[in-house]
Every structure is written in C-alpha cells, then in structure tokens.
Amino acid sequence: MEQNKNLGYILGLLRLIIGWVFLWAFIDKLFGLGFATIAEKSWLAGVSPTAGFLQFGVHGPFADFFHSLAGLPLIDWLFMLGLLFIGVSLMFGIFMKLGGFSGIIMLVLMYGALGLSPANNPLIDEHIIYILVIFVLMMTNSGQYWGFGKWWEGTSFVQKYKFLK
Questions:
Q1: Of 30, 50, 52, 164, the residue nearest 109 (C-alpha)
Q2: CA-to-CA distance for 23 and 52, rounded, in angstroms?
Q3: Smallest Cα–Cα separation from 25: which of 70, 73, 90?
C-alpha cells in the first residue's frame, strides 16, 4: 500500500513536469520571454507561433502537407489553445483523458512533421518518450496526487460524463 502511494506521488510529480513543458511552451510563445521565443517574435507581437517551424523545420514524407499549414491563423489558434489546454489539464490533474489524448495527438503530429526519423537516434526521440509518459499518466490516477483529480472525479459533471475523467 505504501509503495502504491509513493508511486502515486512520483506519477503526480511526473504529471506536473510534463504539464509544465506544455504550459511553458504556450507562455513563451505567447509573450516571447526570450527562451525559445524572443519578444519580437511572440504571438502577441503578431507573429505566427507555427510558421517558422512549419516552413523551415519540417522534412520527410509529410513536409508538403505541413508546409501548407504554415502561418494559417486557424492552425496558430489550435496549436496555442492545445498547448494551453494540455498544460493546464496536466498541471491541475483534471480532464486527464481528454488533455492526455490531445497531447498525444499533438506529439504524433510533431513527430510526423520531423519526418518520422529523429536526428539523434534512428527510432526514439523526446516526442515518443512524452507520448508514452502521457499515456501512463492517463491510465493511472496521477491527477489525484498533487492535483485536483480526486475532487474533479467526484464532481457531478464528471460522474455524468465519465469519459472526462
């Protein structure tokens, strides 16, 4: 029993860390805090958060498809709202299945944009690792540890729509 509780806290910490990866990407792209995005290239400065990567960072069999999406406002909004939703759901431990599934889809798309061939390893890169970690977090009760998952699962809304757990 104690070992399961300790594992829960480790999974909760892992959930917070992965959630912060997504939430930080949203914050930095929105404000341009000078880490991955400078202020002059932030979304608030009117620069597309997806155009640079989709124009110059993609390669492989799906490159033409991803190039066609570069700079489209709908894609920018979907990407940014996706980062925000995934980050918040993981950080708070709520909407774990929906947020996790959204994160997995985003990571699969990013992996596909890179040509299905990581630069430093012939099979595995951080996208695949994040996908597996998010899957584990979705399938466990990680939201109940250092999060609002226990409260969330007890709400009448989630009781009515169990898939939102």
A1: 50
A2: 20
A3: 90
Helix (H, G, I), strand (E, B) or coil at 76: helix
For 1, the 3-state DSSP assignment is coil
Of 62, 73, 68, 64, which Cα lies nearest the Cα of 111?
62
Q: What is the mean pLDDT of the chain?
A: 92
Number of domains in the chain: 1
Q: Which domain holds residue 98?
A: 2-164
DSSP-assigned states of every residue in 76-109: HHHHHHHHHHHHHHHHHT-SHHHHHHHHHHHHHH
Q: Which amino acid appears at position 55 of this protein?
A: Q
CA distances from 139 to 28, 76, 96, 97, 110 (A): 29, 29, 9, 8, 23
pTM of the model: 0.92
pLDDT digits (tens, 9 = 90+) for 87-112: 999 999 999 999 999 999 999 999 99
Tens of pLDDT, residue by residue over 26-66, are: 999 999 999 999 999 999 999 999 999 999 999 888 999 99
Kindly state the tokens that stand for 140: 């466990």
